């Protein structure tokens, strides 16, 4: 019978480099303890890189840049997918993703319907905050980001330039979806969103 380590290695080799793995991916191969030991050995062999506790990467290397690490967002989405949870970026992170700020936050905060927790990834942190279903009911990913970004800016603090940028972003979206999602936002945000698509 093939060792747990070799079975895990052949499984990860079925995926492209850059793929994120969790111990749960290998649950059918062996006991929890055997899986952890095998992952640790594969890390020593350079087949995997441990991004955080229980989160591994099959590294993709660039001849000039070295290992290409996934973004915080890719890691957060992989965790959400594993947990079958919905997530939506908030705060400065939402502003950054929309290009409304060039500031890159050290901590990425997401609203989720999954378990609340914090995960340390190198020097950065991913924080999942439990929220009510209404906040995750948006149909458009961009609309969700706009709502969270505006909440971060605050009522009355949205600059002319930010209004303009948001209008440009929402003009690219499906207006029916914008109308649907605007209804889930506070009244002042709803007005900004609906004005953007008029």
TrEMBL record:
Pfam families: DUF6088
Family matches, as InterPro entries: DUF6088 (IPR045738)
The name this protein goes by in its record: Type IV toxin-antitoxin system AbiEi family antitoxin domain-containing protein
